[in-house]
Records
---
Amino acid sequence: MPPIISIRGVTKSYASGFQALKLVNLDIDKGEIFALLGPNGAGKTTLINIICGIVTASAGTVTADGCDIVDDYRAARSMIGLVPQELSTDAFETVWATVSFSRGLFGRAPNPTFIEGLLRDLSLLDKRNSRIMTLSGGMKRRVMIAKALSHEPQILFLDEPTAGVDVELRRDMWNLVRGLREKGVTIILTTHYIEEAEEMADRIGVINKGTLMLVENKHDLMKKLGKRQLTLHLQTPLQHIPDELRFWALELKAEGHDLVYTVDSADSVDISALLKRLNELSIVIKDLQTHQSSLEDIFVNLVTERT
Amino acid sequence: MNRPALIHSFNRHGVWAIYKFEIARALRTLVQSLVTPVITTSLYFVVFGAAIGSRLVTTSGVSYGAFIVPGLIMLALFTESLSNASFGIYFPKFTGTIYELLSAPVSYAEIVIAYVGAAVTKSVVLGLIILATASLFVPIKILHPLWMIAFLLMTACTFSLFGFIIGIWAKGFEHLQFIPMLVITPLTFLGGAFYSIDMLPPAWRAFSLFNPIVYLISGFRWSFYGAADVSVGISLGMTVGFFAICLWLVSWIFKTGYRLKN
């Protein structure tokens, strides 16, 4: 199946000489949830803004479902919805008016039934006649999503969708995103909450200083770059690791009180052999703890290692 | 999921959405949009038409009160076209909602049609309301009604385009006021809104001919009373020329993304 978004050789340089994007190539598959991760200033928003037509690329091409975003911008843009990072709204407009405006702007005929359903899904129906300036931050974020979905896009960009929202709303949004994916909408999200990407995404892209460092299936990434750790709390601290245990990649921590065994996620491990050997050496274990590295650990390692 | 049809040609729903949004903004601020200019113009009639005008001789065969009507309408038309169009495009830049306009499947021409169309509608309606208000104070005759409408529309279009350019150029609210207050209003007052430039000494008259507003007011006044300070053909040419310059500037702005896109 051809990718729904194809980015080829995209670069972005500003007049000041700052290079925001360095030769980005990326394919987004239809119907997937793609999370673009990166620290502040990595180029995430620039890339999204180029695809959506807000920023002009210095070089390269982007197509949305085969439509070039420059040559066939009408077709390309009419299938894209964007929820920007900033809460930019028409403060004096009502919720109903601003969402209807967005639908019209993106070339769709008025459809009050659809707008009503959309507002209901986003728990905004009772606020339909409220002016946006009277809404809370979380409600405004919902309005931004309603505006982006008002023209029934096939591709939805969520730029930091849950920044500054409470836990309940974040969960609501995750459910909404899943619901959209079930309807066939392709979702590209940027987030600072790695937990969000871990929870939602099918594939992960990591971008740093304008360079797309890797693109991987989330599970493959976790398997490939993730680590598992077994921490054994010892009854009596050790001065050094006995030679008999050199077969295992062990470290002594907490002044010899903890014996830490780290393995890659992909490796198969025989913990019982280690425990048996420790028993033979009369090393008494008081307690034990396991830890599987999260996407956040992987992300931090990636970004710090390669910079 | 049903796939909605893609947009490949003129985005009429998009143009209509922007137009409606802009008209709704004017209706929301009805006092500021309509009542204030009407009261201001009425005060001009009271001061210049009744209090001072009654002591002045007739100009071009019409009473002074009637003489200033086209100039007053033009003054309102200039300022309202400029402020409506400039504010219309500046406000989304200020609030950040411009992202939606830039990411929508609307062409630059459609954006201009919608914003300028709305500004023209508002200023023409205002011009007609001022005309109706004026007729309550002084007897008015319109010798060339079609030309009057044509001048009204052309001037509104030109100044709305000019306002659109100012709105894109503006970096702050003070910039929005800068050209209307410091350039257009003085030029209008010196452009024969309240007098015929034939009344001026020859040197000042010659100097006034460098003021483009003179041609606009003169042509518009001709459509009322058949008398003009300068040839109607030149007035028409200047109006069309000014319109063409604004159109070129707008197309350059969109081509380069000046103050809109990085």
---
Amino acid sequence: MSLVEVTDLTVEFGSLRAVDGLSFRLAEGAALALVGESGSGKSTVAGALLGLHRGTGARVGGSVHVAGTDVQQASDGELRRLRGAKAAMVFQDPLSSLDPYYAIGDQIAEVYRVHTRASRRAARARAVEVLERVGIPDARRRSRSRPHEFSGGMRQRALIAMALACEPDLLIADEPTTALDVTVQAQILDLLHTLREETGMGLLLVTHDVGVAAESVDEVLVMRHGKAVEHGPVGTVLGAPAQAYTRELLGAVPRVDAPRAAVAEASDEVVLEATGLRREFGRGRTAFTAVDDISLTVRRGETLGIVGESGSGKTTLGRMLVGLLPPTAGGIRYDGRPHTGVNPAVQMVFQDPVSSLNPRRSVGESIADPLRARGEHDERIRGRVLELLERVGLEAAHYDRYPHEFSGGQRQRVGIARALAADPRVIVCDEPVSALDVTTQAQVVALLGELQRELGLALVFIAHDLAVVRQVSDRIAVMRRGQVVESGPVDEVYDTPREPYTKQLLAAVPALDPELAAQRRAARRELAVA
Amino acid sequence: MSGFGGFLLRRAVGTAVTLLAISVLVYVVFYATPGNVAQITCGPRCSPEQVHQVAQQLKLGDPLYLRYWHFLEGIFVGQDYSTGTSVAHCPAPCLGLSYQSDQQVMDIILTKLPVSLSLVLGAMVLWLVIGVGTGVLSAWRRGRFSERVLTAVTLAGWATPVFVLGLVLMIVVCGELQLLPFPQYVNFADDPEQWAWNLLLPWLSLALIEAAAFARLTRAAMLETLAEDHIRTFRAYGVGERAIVGRHALRGALAPVIALNANNVGSAVGGAVLTETLFGLPGIGQELVHAVKVVDLPVVVGMVLVVGFFVVIANAVADVLYAVADRRVVLA
């Protein structure tokens, strides 16, 4: 009997068929990844394994057996005995997935008591034990902390501890590392790996990141539109994919180890120069230096990549470069002359294409804003906006549509068109593709490259994804705690990093090749010991 | 813990500043108005000599800020008043003298305050139990028939004026069924049992109306919490619906309930006029209305200050409870 047996599963929300006739098995102790882009139905499958769609109005068809329980036929009581005890789930966002009002240890103890009838004391002791097991230092004391007092990585560890509490046979992890920095992601994936080695539990991993799958599982199931596209051993599916969609998906994944395809020759003309930039927030004891003495130059036609983990000061730096945020100290020179405040020639593309467009205005009007601000005549504005829409791969008919009618990738194209409207010479892109699926991400990156060559734009490309930055940048700067720890030509920094922090970052990037992933894991263990 | 101590200190300072600001505002509004303040203060039946005397006692010749300072001094250290023949001492906290009734304002307030506090605090217990209980039930039974009935009942409660509900209660309970005597205020110190029996109806009628707001607030806040991700976590771990609603969802509703309760308690101390009048309870609200009617300025000023004091203190207590319920508040 397999641990999980799903036969002809369909899940429908109203008229939307999220999962469409999916079947798969998972043997005891095995690990399977469901990989797919957003909307492929992979998280819906994960929920169906625990019967989480019951009572939500979703229609579920087919059969689901998990650890000897027929999820479709089980009574509510039977389902509760399955959930957490035999199959436990780890969710994507560890902050919102824990109750903000209760101590973490109490929450784990509560779950333990539901399934074991242990005494309060025994349950609390078990909570401390599993927290220790997932690597929370000083677990007894920290078990009394509330979720907001934990860092993102520690919260995810706490959720994993909750999953371990009742020693389940199956761990379901729904995008367990998506909200985390790359070094923390590596730690969590390594933890899952070690736990599986020790306890022999099965793993069902749901992820959009092929690299995360390659690191963690034996088998991969690629999903699209609720159906299985390809299913097989991880080495085969990722190494020699049989289906066109799988090849397309893999082709779109940026590789951190592949050098960048050469682009136009670099120019020596410096457009933007920042010297000794510094920015503090708050006062007194709560003062915090987000950017600490950064100097950099951006040359015509080149891309300067800026990488760093969350909180490293990347966004603050970007905002100062476009003049949205006045620096506490230091200055910015544009074309050799000092410049303060916003500058039409330096534009910005924002991370979240949903919230950076006004939902109550048509996209055409949003793109026209910079032109209006410049005092352009109304008759000329419309023509110019239509031109821009076509330039970024949209259609003239899109002028009067509203942001909600577009997909994520299209919205980001609108954002780019708006940045182009003011005829800039520099565009600062702050995480321009991190909210997008890999295939869309590749298209947007390609568009930026085209525009750069055609218009001789200088780009400052800010991102946490080291692979994406390698694909687009000529030079890069690695940021940590408000400072640039290492900078230089992109291939030099990636191939022969000098700083330990850069080495650590690069070692944490998930590899697409399972064998390489295993080597990297071993290398990380050595780094951790050293 | 130092963070929490600092939080308490900041709250205390904020409360003191607010109280001071209220006193300035109230003083200016009532004593810097155009017209003959001495005549108004003394009352319509005062002779010109008496008006003159009052003007001297109020030191109307002094500039406004000095007079306010004098007023503050009365509150903190007390004051002496000469009534022409003798000098009366008004100990701190002294809110002045009612020239119309020849009584110290503080004494008037002190006889009325126990009545109002008895009414409001007792009703508060009832409205919290009834209101939050109904809210929890309707969140738990959401979407079912029983929830619709509860919603209808709470809506009806909200829409019923206190004089209708109170009268009906009184006619049915005291008149028809003769289960209780018609309410008459008895001091708690004199006879606690009679105190409670006599206040039962006023408590009920005030509480039933307030409870409606609490029921709706609790239900809304709980439904909001029930839609959050962490509830999904506990469901996915096999925690039963009763524990999810009773422990996790209710906790999320606590903060807004605390805030609303502070507001209601604070304003009901001086604002439950209808309930007090209906049941013949000699409380602050009734006295305030009376003082306004006969334009007894010192009494009005004193009472407005005391009512303001309760609103501010109730909110300060709520802030602290809020922070105890959710420690993230302390960081903000």
